[in-house]
Amino acid sequence: MSNVDFIEVFPSVLPAETCATIVARMHDSAQLQPGRIGGGVFPDLKRSRDLSLEGRGDWADVAQALNVAVYGGLLAYLRKYPQALVAPLMLQVPGEDGTLRRLSAEDIAAMDDKALGQLARTCLRPGAINLQWYAAGEGGYPYWHCELYPRGADCEPLHRHLLWTLYLNDGFDDGETEFLFQQRKVAPRTGDLLLAPTAFTHTHRGNRPAGGDKFIATSWILFQRAETLYGGG
């Protein structure tokens, strides 16, 4: 597995027509707010107009469509990198005789979609989705950053395992998602899904689009909290 960078792009996971509908609804929405990072608005680091879908019933259909699209990409990612589940969690399942045995990477790779999906839902959970609008020539997230950091009493950002971005449009120049250490730029293509780890190893930035506005949906795949995974308070 030489030259593995753990950055995966899954093409056309969401139909172009669905992406265009989401963009049109963003254009018509009065709910967009200045983009936030780390709990604050810092336009020198990130300049965008954002809409969090968390708790918005009128956007529930969009959140559902995005989560379904991401779910398919997640299963494919876990098949390619089963260590994403095995390495951090040391999973066990009952064997034929009822005694527990450790799951291996080979076990996960051999699972059908139903079994793998059940395991993924047991261990992981979706994050709140954020829709983002970057204006041509000025919008962007040019600050080199990662997605894993301690913040808040519950340290929720520390549960982030994978980041995802679903590109809702193209037809502009630049605007890539650029990864620092991997020296890789991912160009936006309508309906494509990007998945990558959240830690500092995958420090990245969102370059400014030129010649047209850029629209994306983005969130994380998080670990279930310890009390869910292991019980207790």
Question: How would you sum up this structure, described in words?
Answer:
The protein is α+β, with helices and mostly antiparallel strands. Helices cover 27% and strands 27% of the residues. It is built from 6 helices and 16 strands. Strand 4 and strand 5 form a beta hairpin. The termini are far apart. The model has no long low-confidence stretch (mean pLDDT 94).
Write the layout of secondary structure elements.
Elements: E1 8-10, H1 16-28, E2 33-34, E3 49-52, H2 60-80, H3 83-89, E4 92-94, E5 100-102, H4 105-110, H5 113-123, E6 124-126, E7 130-134, E8 141-145, E9 160-167, E10 173-174, E11 177-179, E12 184-186, E13 193-197, E14 204-206, E15 209-210, E16 214-223, H6 226-230
Antiparallel strand pairs: 1-13, 2-3, 3-7, 4-5, 6-16, 7-16, 8-14, 9-13, 9-16, 10-15, 11-12, 11-14
CATH topology of the domain at 8-63 and 126-224: Jelly Rolls
Order of helices and strands: EHEEHHEEHHEEEEEEEEEEEH
Overall structural class, as computed from helix and strand content, comes to: alpha+beta
Report the CATH architecture of the domain at 8-63 and 126-224. Sandwich
Shape category? globular
Count of β-strands: 16
Determine and state the CATH class of the domain at 8-63 and 126-224: Mainly Beta
> Uncertain runs with pLDDT below 50, 5 residues or more?
none
